[in-house]
Predict the 3D structure of the following.
Amino acid sequence: MCLGIPAKITRIDASGQGTVDHLGTKVKVNFSLLENVRPGDWVIVHAGFAITRLNEEEAQETLTLLREITQAQGE
Amino acid sequence: MPGPMKELRDGSITRALLRKIRGKSSGLDRPVRIMEVCGTHTMAIHRYGLKTLLEEAGVDMISGPGCPVCITPNEVHEACIDLVTKRENFILASFGDMTRVPTGKGSLQTAVPAPSSRVKIVYSPDEALALAEANPAKEVVFFGVGFETTIPGIALTVKRAAEEVVPNFSVLTALWLIPPALRAILQAGESAVTGFLYPGHVSAIIGLEPYRFIAEEYRVPGAVAGFEPNDILLGISAVLDQITAGRPGVYLEYGRVVNPLGNPVAQAVMEEMLEPRDAFWRGLGRIPRSGLGLKEPYCAYDARAKHSLGLKEGSGDLPGCRCGEVLRGLISPPQCPLFGKKCGPDSPFGPCMVSFEGACFIYHKYARRKRSG
Amino acid sequence: MATTKENAVSLELGSGGKLMRDFVARHIVPAFRNPFLEDLGDASHLPMGIAFTTDSYVVDPIFFPGGDIGTLAVNGTVNDLVVSGALPQFLSLALILEEGLPWSDLEKILRSIKRAASRADVRVAGGDTKVVRRGQADKIYINTSGVGLTVARPRISLIRPGDRIILTGTLGEHSLAVMVAREEFGFESRVRSDCAPLNYLLPIWEMGALWMRDITRGGLATILSELAEKIPHALLIEEEKIPLSLAVRGASELLGIDPLYLACEGRAIIVAPQKKAGTMLSKIRKSPLGRRAAIIGRVDDRTGRPGELLLSTMTGGLRLLEPLTSELLPRIC
């Protein structure tokens, strides 16, 4: 029940509406559930609403964790 | 954004994670049964073929009640169908997922609308409101179904309708809360769930606190996980660590999306516009304060009242249906005597077969296969 | 438990899914029983060395990025002939026009038909025009019937384990282009319909192709599931080998749509004998329309049960694919 895709904000207007881009496809999104978001930020989009912003640091940590798993097993 | 994040789907990492999981599960003296709460997790687990791979690694995945199509009562679906087949100049706007659900009156998809009425599939509640604004001569009812991920967006749309005074718009709400459902499952006692995989995007809204009671009162471990294959496996691995250490908690795997406090703006919107109600979950029965309804001054946008729908929820499912036990993780789909015989995707008896994410539907469609060669 | 109230025709019946197949099986075939019909191929091979097919086009909207109802009306029928083993020769063109249809729209569509016919090397040999009162049709409906010369026959009974499945290009662009034109779901995309004639595949019949079908309503998964049901083997395809354009990937991920079920109008599936698949693929790739062709799977007897279509996922798992039973929907879940 949680289909949400990470996408990059391309446009926000004053009313909190705008668009995001995912692999070249753009979709209309409502940003009213988030504060201080700007074009260029990455957000999770669900049913036409941006529900949260992507945290780059945390993303890096997860990726490092995953890479270490194969290294630890000598792959 | 750190690029395409291929590691989340990397096959060699998947295999390594599965090996780790097997190592951990084989060291335990009890079978490992983890309930993935969210229908989207159930889908992902099957779509990537993880269910069989996890079984081979010693972990049984049980599908939980996080499937809004599955748990919305039959009467609510039928009320939508009635709106568009028996009334003129109505537009029933709905998410796609909901329109397939078969009822005694057919589905929204196969229903033949009254002249001048129709069903419109929308991707967002905003689209439904725009439809009302563009069609002032029609009465637009939005079938607003969802869990905490979807609820804030639906609420915001009602707010905008109220602010802009859109008189021909209302929402037939079917809003569900996850933590009370989990409590009901645990209270019933019998489910033998040894760990939870918590929904990633619901958690982005509500944060981690609402799951604390599961670790503290019921001593059941859990992890909030993302939806890529390696997210899911990392989450499961973390649950196994908690079991091994005897220290149940709420582990956050999906930190790149979930803030431990959730989304405060979304929570405030829900608080402002909605109030908890007892709700009847198809297959699970009545669960106290597990649903939400519109508060004043937004009740004018509540379709049940506006259109005098007279809904009596909980009039019961078909006899013989054992979805309740499937939703609690007590039996697996093939253990239901109706599965694959009287009950199938084209003629579902109960909620678990009805939705694309229903445990029985998924089991039937994506049946397990071992990869050989 | 009934899923449809069957006292009136529902839109669902026309969607190309199970309801339609059941309708044809239960109402059409028994009423008109004869050996030419019962094959239920895309075109029928008649005794005189002629192949014959018909199709009606009611697409809404009538214009979309990369084509219009006219382009579809020609290519759809031409392709049904090609994948049945026939060299397309002539089309009939029947138009049902709604009173009030702008003349400029009609002219545009006729020009498209002319261009498409020329590209597909067919001639419009006859036709008909009707006009109905405003409101009694949706702008324009077109029926084209096509006649071709039989050059080959599909030989399903010769399909063996190890035979390869070739997909001639990327999936789903036509479906997506139509969604964009309908302005559905608030999304924008630069996608263009893949609508195109498949004449370039005719030499592949001569090279020994066993079976072909163009991927229309229901998408790749539906076409291949239907094939699987007709043979005593399973089919196994690999997720990673399936070519997808960025536009379709992006839109399908955003909207929660499975590209394996998206319709195309210029893509085909070919079953090739194992030893010839490589050369066939090279030949297909020489054509501009076949640049992204790929061998995506094979006929299998180890992994699955007869009649099954299986997908090997990118993570090494296996998934059973079934025909589309209902209209493709964007999901929130």
Remarks:
- The CA atoms of residues 204 and 258 of chain B lie 4 Å apart.
